[in-house]
TrEMBL record, chain A:
Protein name: Branched-chain amino acid transport system substrate-binding protein
Species classification: Bacteria, Pseudomonadati, Pseudomonadota, Alphaproteobacteria, Rhodospirillales
Family (UniProt): Belongs to the leucine-binding protein family.
Transmembrane domains' residue ranges: none
Signal peptide: 1-35
Organism for this UniProt entry: Novispirillum itersonii (Aquaspirillum itersonii)
Database matches in SUPFAM superfamilies: Periplasmic binding protein-like I
Keyword Mitochondrion appears in the UniProt entry: no
Amino acid sequence: MSACAPAHRSTGSRPAICLMAGALLSAAVSLPAHAARIELGASAEEADVIVGCLYPMTGRAGTYGLDSVSGIEMALKDLADEAATGLPVPKIRVVIDDPASKASYGVRIAEDFLRNDHVQVLCGMVSSGVAQAVSEVSRREKVILIGTDHASSRLTIEAGHRYYFRVTNDSWTSMAAGARYLRDLQARDGWTRLAFIGPDYDYGHVSWLDLQHALADLGVRYETVAELWPKLYEPDYSVYIAALQQAKPEIVVTAIWGGDFIAFVKQAASTRFFETIRLANFDTGANYDALVALGDTPPPGLILSARHHNNWPETGRNQRFVRIFHDLNGRYPTYAAEGAYTGILAVARAVEIAGGAKDTEKLVEALEGLKLALPEDPPGFASYIDRDTHQIVQAMAVGTVVPDTRFPPAKVMVGNWAVYDAEDLKPSPEVIRRRRDAARSGWESALPPP
Amino acid sequence: MRRMRFSLVARYTLLSLAVMAGALMVLSLLYERMAGDLYDRLTGERLNAQVTATASRLTSFLDNRLYQLANLSNHPSIPSFLDGQNAAAAAEATALLRLEADLPDLYGILFFNADGSLKKVIPGQAASGAPYWSADDWDISALPVITVDGVDFIGPALPANGRSGWLLIRQPLRDGPAEPGTSIALHLRLASLTELLGGGGISGVVAPLLRAPDGTVLDATGRVATGLTDLTDGPRILPGWSIVLDARSDTILKPLEQARLWLYITAAAIISFILLIFLALSRSLRRRIGTLVTGAGSLAAGDLGYRLPEGPSHDEISRVGRAFNTMAEQLSGLIDRMVRAEKMAVLGEFATGVAHEVRNPLATMKTTVQALSRQERDPDRQELLTDMGSQIDRLSRVVSDLLTYGRPSPPSPRPVAAGDLFRQTASLLRPLAEEQGITLSTGGETGAMVLADPDQMVHVLVNLGLNAVQACTPGGAVTMRVTAEGGQAVMAVSDDGCGIAPEHLASVLTPFFTQKRRGTGLGLTISQQMVDANHGTLSIASVPGEGTTVTLRLPLAESALNESVSHG
């Protein structure tokens, strides 16, 4: 673990959450008896900065929480290795808790982090719904929030604020890359009928808006034959699969992610869905756990990408990241690991630049425009945080499924890459202005309560 | 057509078609009945139970939401949340509202002023767009409102422009804050209600849909259902909200009708194909039977040499053809033998009569001529008497031949080496052959033992040898060879003489046919008679100008055959 400070994990009950629920409240909802809490890095006393992260550890998104924790551990180790060489690396303490994919839990955990753990930076969140709520805490409390996994572009455009930063590709970036792939595909096979299915929460809806904007900007002509919104963690997609088949699209773009995406593909594969329809998932479909679930006989026609790939780019930095993750955990990482790894690195570099974590405004200034050389950066490019949106700017690669057994137990990986430059995937200032203006009207009357 | 109607093949064809058509009709009737039963079963008895269960799921879902709404509207901390006067109560209410909003079926919890304008919103995890992150397009004034027991059911707002459909359940707060008429609403996900209608409908035949108060019919995904044809009213969920059934008879009947159509097309194709096969078969059969009839007619007309063409096939008609040919062959042989036997019987009787009448006077004449010749001193007369004696000798030989032909002596067969027969024959013929400058040779498997009368065989061979020598010109050759083939001794007498013209070849065995100036025409006839008597056959092959070969086939003595094999 860390060379500058002994890191340790601890688990225990979270009294703050339990206190929240009164007698009447507990009659209405059922809380988990125990929620995991993990502490990593320096102790509270010696830490230069305390980071409070929220990741799910259970349920369909649990894998991403666990991989995020491993990514944080890898970042702390890399920083410790730097410190061992005499570089002025800040000592970081990370506390992690599980919001159980619920916005209300997320808000309460974030408030507890601030009140009880005195964290100076919040981080994490897999679900954009939880992130949306915690971002409001960040804005209200003027505490930096580093998003590492959730992807709704609304968080950096309409709902963006001074203290919110995101260090992983957002739905705009993914859909901009996907729109370019679809444009090129249309030139080859002439598809025109498009359907979209996304989870019925902010991330799903924003992804569809992002894709529509990106396709319009590229001048792609198509007909939308269906828009479908199953709920997050939907166990049965049969009515939606039947509705998609009935609409007869040529391409279905989906923003369903994680275990939901795996469930959707398995259920669709049991029908004749893939005989006539190509399924595209540009933001999360190439996540490693989804590729493992495809087995050795994936459905035909899948078009996939994700925010980080174990087999792209084939740079020494990426290969080292994947190999060390595997050595530590005995399995290969999902993209969540690289997001969390990036989040901790970003905090460390910002603290270095700001000369400490006491002054949040200095930290914000340090994060704005911060450059980071990351595993997912192709040769000759380093990711950076956009000063206006606070969204990290990164390249994207989209491809199709090919047999590849280098990362067992996966039998397939994504190949046949189409790579899109980072600068091409940024939303234009005009788009940002238009979306923010639209959201501003009547905003005050409908703000969530303080 | 007249021939077709009465032909056996036509009758078989019609019978087969009738059986097939009958089977098809029975099958079709069974199919229709099965399809009807299936449809009745799918749409009938189980339908009511399933629709009732579906309605129960929807009602239960709404009941739970109403219970949740009642709890919230009655909670004492809610007014503090709205007016902010009691911080502790407001914090408790905030925590409560956040948790309550965090259901996947809720977008959030909304508070309305008395005038219906939005007061506050609590976004849940599924919140998206208006009214949480913007107020664009947020207007509920045009939505249908149904009020049941003080609770307003507002909506549905249909999915459009990338937004999901939703429904509000609104109730006034029990203990309102300063502003009376404040109400609380659950912002419900419309699809959470419609998903309970079920996936592929009831057996995929009857799809339950949800009819909203404004008459909109929603499918299971919460979208406006399209392509509806035959809607039936189902149970009511709320006033204005009810389940309707879309009887998609096409879902099951269309495939069945398509299957039936293909069944008929396939059956018609099969019947046509079989009909074509029968027609082709009928034509072929009639042609081949016509050949049989022609053959039988030719035979009846006396053309014993008519034979049917024998193809390579082994079917029934070919077998009949071969049997016909065998029959014609045997009939022809039988008639030949009968004619020849009758002819020989007549000729034999005649010859025997003539011989008896002529032989005694000839003997007297011969004795007299000899006596006169001894007493005659005149050389001229002596020569005349000698010529007369020679002519009497010739007449005697003719008479002897006639007797041999007319009254053949029965053979005494015994094993005899072919070589012995050739040796005796050669000793008799060689002086004549040498005199005429003809080479006579014998050879082959001369050890072959023939089962035959040796005297008669020597007679036959001498006769054949004489014919051969006489057919040759000086310098010619006559050969006698024997081989053993399949239990028979094949003895061939060949010459390289003038040969026999094809038109005479069939007649050479006829009695009294001869091309020689001084022949009796009985030599070959007698030879064949003897060979027949020894269970052999005689055949003649000849090419004019190249020579003639007469072949005798005689049974081999078994012991001689074995000996021949061991030597060979």
